[in-house]
Structures are given as C-alpha cells and as structure tokens.
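Q: Sequence in, structure out?
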Amino acid sequence: MIHMRNLTKMYGNLIAVNNINLHVRRGEIFGFLGPNGAGKTTTIKMLAGLLRPTRGQILLNGYDVVQHPILAKQIIGFIPDRPFLYDKLTGLEFMQFMAGLYGMNHGQFEDRAFRLLRLFDLEQWSGELIESYSHGMKQRLIIASALLHQPQLIIVDEPLVGLDPRGARMVKDIFRNLSTHNGVTIFMSTHTLEVAQEMCHRIAIIHEGNEVALGTFAELQQQAGISNPRLESIFLKLTGGDEMKEIIEVLKE
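A: Exactly. Output:
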C-alpha cells in the first residue's frame, strides 16, 4: 500500500528526513515512532501530499504522490494531531464540505455521514456550530470526516489526543476492525508507546531523520539487544533516551 523509496526532505542544509525506505502492507496497522524533531511530522506531510520531497518517491497503492497527487489523495483519510476546523460551520456542514472534496453524491453522503455522526456520539450536535464543540468532540469529528469516503489508507498523527477513555477505546476498536475486516491500512504516529505496542503489527523508529529500527515488537527487541517487555525501553535504547535516564539519576543523588 505504501512504498517510500529513498525519501529525503531538506530545509536548506538541514536534513529533516534522510533516505527513508519503507514498505507498508495493505491492511497493516503500522507505527511510526520517534522523539520530537525526529522527522515524523515531515514524513507524514509528504505522505499526505502537503510537502514535496527533496529526493525520493512515495507510492500509495501504486500512485506517485508527486506525479499523480489527485489519484493518491483520493484513497487517503488524513487525521492530524490538531483538529483545524471551520468554526462557523456546523458539524454536518463540515461533513458536507469534506464529502464535496471527495466527489461524493448526496445519497452516498447522507447515509454515511449520519451513521458516522451516530457512531462518534455527535448526532445530537450535528446542527451546532463547531466553535461550541469541546476539543474531544472536534477530534471525533475530524476522525469521522476522514472515514467519510471509505479510504483505503488512513494517515493519523496522535490518534487519541484529546479523547476520553471511552472515545480512545472506540477509535482503537474502529481501527482494528477496518484493518482486519476491510483491509484498510493505518499509518500511525504517536508518542503514546503503549498504544503503539498494543495496536501495531509492525513499527518503524526514526531518530534525527534516520530509520534506526523496523519490525514487529519481537524483532525490535532483537535489534535493540534487550528482552524488556515494554516498548518504552526499546525506544529509549534506540534513540539515546537511556542517557537522559542516567542524567536524571545523577541529579537525584
């Protein structure tokens, strides 16, 4: 579903993403992890067609994101970490706006939109202006809108931010169901390592723009050379976080 080939992004002399090569399979929940400034958001923006790579290529279901941007974007549902919405629209109007972008006809939209609004507990708020929504409601609306056109690939940055425990559980269950029963690919970036360990079939870890590890949890343990049952320990080992733990211990003395 996703092929990144020698993907590189530079800002002047700064290399934000350095020669990344990844293949994400159809129906896979794939975790994309790294510390702040590692290049995760830059990579996601290139995947979504919001940034142009300096070098390399991205293929989404065979479509080159640069050469065939419309065809590539038609199969994507993009869920950013911050729900930037039009506050003067109602929830339903925003859904209609999104449906128009994807060329959905009225019949397709109406049935799908109300089922999603009901699923995300937003039906009774669908006629209210988005400016009256809580942060969690806005996050649920952006997720519902991303699913409206039944995408083959969901690109999600911090999927559970702002959600209460019930909302977080619902989103995790939806992603699992879409992956297992619909063959939808989920490309997920998150700082919540427990979520990544719980949900992802495979995980890539990047650090300072470079891929430092890739594989299942067991394969990551092997690459890190540790048998700790927590992804956090592997992540810290591979990204230099163990050094910070040592500094903290020294400060405690």
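The mean pLDDT is 91.
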